[in-house]
Amino acid sequence: MPEITIGRFRGGFCVYWKEQGKRRRYQLKARSAKEAEAEALDVYQRQATAAAAATVTDLWHLYLGERSGRPVAMTMRYTGKPILKHFGALRADQIDTQTCRAYTKNRTKEGVKPGTIWTELGHLSTVLNWAKKQRRIEHVPHIERPSKPAPKDRYLTQPEIDCLLAAPAGPHIKLAIRLMFSTAARVSAILELTWDRVDFERNQIDLRKSATGPRKGRAVVPMNEGLRQALLSARQAALSDHVVEWAGQPIKSITRGFASAAQAAGLRDVSPHVLRHTSAVHMAEAGIPMGEISQFMGHSNTTVTERVYARFSPDHLRRAAQALDFTRDKNVS
């Protein structure tokens, strides 16, 4: 064990030591010299352990443990299978552009789409950045990913919406479809929605699971009259705390039920996420400002909203187009 030294840094305490000729320094949270001594030993031992054994597999499982119970943890259990098969035994400092390109090449040969590969490598980058913030690794390598494919442009027209709403389906599927259309929410937010977050007095639905839970793509949205009537009927027949339920039990997936409804409606290439996209497109076509659409969608800022949906607005670039109408009559004074 090298000699560790406690010093002052940025108005507080720090610990530093030399490792292979390079000085390592870490800010401490301690407020007294006594506390700093104990914390300094913990910091050194944590760094020494991490440097010796922090493989991608170790970091991946630690990250999932911290995110336990969140939708991203479930998703990353699936994306982790190919990632850990390729990167699992490596440390962060052993990952470079060539290992990333080899992963992309192998997954492409397996018939995996570029968008899926992009997501998988993005999750690897997320884990490594988290590990750096947790001081479990010193350096985050650049994770090269294939170009992100353009988003699918499939959305439903009004006649297609009418067909889907009228298609035969179980009451839980019909309610889920109406909720997705009227709130522009992801299917995961709809299936997690509980009655305590449906406010009939204020006509609002809080799609956020909790004050500390996931917020991405979730917002507090008003309910329109059609959705209100559907929810009032569902509330009277409710057997559990969940809005969308089956036989008094919450539902984990509506994949098969939704697919059957879409097929009965004569629709192709339609997934639950298409309904979220459809809602945003129809708001844009109705001339709703991008700022309002962004809030409704639960976007953190309007940049994503504008990039994807601004072109559907009837006023999008119209002034620019008019400025280029060189054939129009001009008043001559």
Quick structural summary:
This protein is mainly α. It is 51% helix and 9% strand. Belongs to the 'phage' integrase family.
Coarse morphology: globular
Helix/strand-derived category reads mainly alpha
The average pLDDT value, as a whole number, equals 88
Distance between the termini: 89 Å
**Strand order, biggest sheet?**
1-2-3
The H-and-E topology, N to C, reads as EEEHHHHHHHHEEEHEEHHHHH
Determine the fraction of residues in helical runs and give it as a percent range.
40-55%
Radius of gyration: 26 Å
Spans where pLDDT lies below 50 across 5 or more residues: none
Number of helices: 14
CATH topology of the largest domain: hpI Integrase, Chain A
| Corresponding CATH superfamily of the largest domain | Intergrase catalytic core
Number of domains: 3
Total number of strands: 8
Question: What do these coordinates show?
Answer:
The protein is 51% helix and 9% strand. The protein is mostly helical. It has three domains: 5-52, no CATH class; 56-133; 158-312, hpI Integrase, Chain A, CATH 1.10.443.10. The strands form three sheets. The chain has a three-stranded antiparallel β-sheet with strand order 1-2-3, covered by helices on one side. It has a three-stranded antiparallel β-sheet with strand order 4-5-6, with no helix packed on it. A two-stranded antiparallel sheet has the order 7-8. Helix 3 crosses helix 5 (114-133) and helix 7 packs parallel to helix 11 (272-285). The longest helix is centred in the first third of the chain and has 21 residues, at 33-53. It is globular, with a radius of gyration of 26 Å. The mean pLDDT is 88.
